[in-house]
Amino acid sequence: MTRTLLTVGLLAALVGCYSGNRPPRIGEIAPDFTVQDSDHQITLSSFKGQVVVLNFWASWCAPCVQEMPSLIQMQSKLKNAGVTVVGVSIDADEGAYHRFLKDYGVNFVSVRDEAQKSPGLYGTRGWPETYIIDRAGVVRRKFIGPVNWNSTEISDYLTKL
Prior knowledge:
five-stranded mixed beta sheet
């Protein structure tokens, strides 16, 4: 009897961990947002017609710092193929955000969303988190954690969207 209850409890816990569904937002129109910081304003829907690599990050986040050079290189490499990186920083410290952009030579569109309203639309709670949005504005993939954006597989995937 105890063994049966233990087995049923374990199965119930496992079913709760995996529902068999794909991540939220995949296959749906990307939630639109407008963010205004001290430098400029961006609206996600203004990038329709391009493949958007929507990256939520912070200057104090070690995994974000780790992946930043590959994002910068990928933007340079795939810009002419219609791939655009849109970075949304959640930095509270405006000075740290600007120093980071300068120190790393960030070459893609970036905006600071201190209130975290745009990441909230996507359910983002960890950093970095990246969404791939196709030319029609549909979310196609989600990456959690740092990614090597210069891998052949990712470059091929982005240019074929």
